[in-house]
């Protein structure tokens, strides 16, 4: 493999590593709505938090935090990954493995 192709593949790998920051989640500027606290409580109980603890945690959040967590599926268990995060990680590790195999194999020639 030529040095130019290796440089292109390296640049592509770096772009893949840095690209997720371009799609970072944007915090909405609207105020908390009446049902936001109940929605956050429901999400917390769904991941295994007791109802009393979910009420306490939702009550301690600010209006912006309530709006953020109520707007979608943003509450998850710590260290738990969504399926697309697992698949993306496995795919990227497979890509890096294949890339390193190609680089090592071509350097033996």
Polypeptide structure, described:
The structure is a single chain. This protein is mainly alpha-helical. It folds into two domains: 49 residues; 48 residues, no CATH class. Helices cover 63% and strands 0% of the residues. The protein has five helices and no strands. α2 crosses α3 and α2 packs across α4. The radius of gyration is 21 Å and the shape is elongated. It starts with a helix and ends with a helix. The mean pLDDT is 78.
Primary descriptors:
109 residues, mainly alpha, 2 domains
Summarize the structure.
It is built from five helices and no strands. The protein has 109 residues and is mainly α.
Mean pLDDT: 78
In the residues, how many domains can be counted? 2
Are there runs of 5+ residues with pLDDT below 50, and where?
Answer: none
The helix/strand class is mainly alpha
Residue fraction in strands? under 5%
Helix-residue proportion: 55-70%
Assign an overall shape. elongated
Number of strands: 0
Count helical runs: 5
CA gyration radius, whole angstroms = 21 Å
Biggest sheet architecture: none
Which H/E pattern describes the elements? HHHHH
Query: How far is the N terminus from the C terminus?
Result: 9 Å
